């Protein structure tokens, strides 16, 4: 009764502001969040507004490949 692919998958969200700017010279890294998404409800890439501690503001975090 097991299905071939899981419906709920784990995805990594990465700050688009840090990646575009090449990370500020003051900051030490890139903000990343781990979350889950439903493959049937959101087949395209997930984008959420979350707080980036390196940019010190809310930025768009987009789904990246593992």
From TrEMBL:
Q: Which GO terms describe its cellular component?
A: chloroplast; ribonucleoprotein complex; ribosome
The record's section on Pfam families has: Ribosomal_L33
Which key words tag this protein in UniProt? Chloroplast, Plastid, Ribonucleoprotein, Ribosomal protein
Q: Which domain of life is it from?
A: Eukaryota
Q: Give the molecular function GO annotations.
A: structural constituent of ribosome
User: Per the UniProt entry, what are the Gene Ontology biological process annotations, in alphabetical order?
Assistant: translation
InterPro entries on file: Ribosomal_bL33, Ribosomal_bL33_CS, Ribosomal_bL33_sf, Ribosomal_zn-bd
Mind telling me which SUPFAM superfamilies this protein's record contains?
Answer: Zn-binding ribosomal proteins
Tell me where it resides. Plastid, Chloroplast
Recorded family membership: Belongs to the bacterial ribosomal protein bL33 family.
Under what name is this protein listed?
Large ribosomal subunit protein bL33c
State the species of origin.
Answer: Petroselinum crispum
């Amino acid at each position: 009764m097991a299905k071939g692919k899981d419906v709920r998958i784990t995805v990594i969200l990465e700050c688009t502001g840090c990646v575009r700017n090449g990370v500020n010279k003051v900051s030490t890294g890139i903000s990343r969040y781990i979350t889950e998404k439903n493959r049937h409800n959101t087949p395209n890439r997930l984008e959420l507004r979350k707080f980036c501690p390196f940019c010190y503001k809310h930025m768009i975090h987009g789904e990246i490949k593992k």
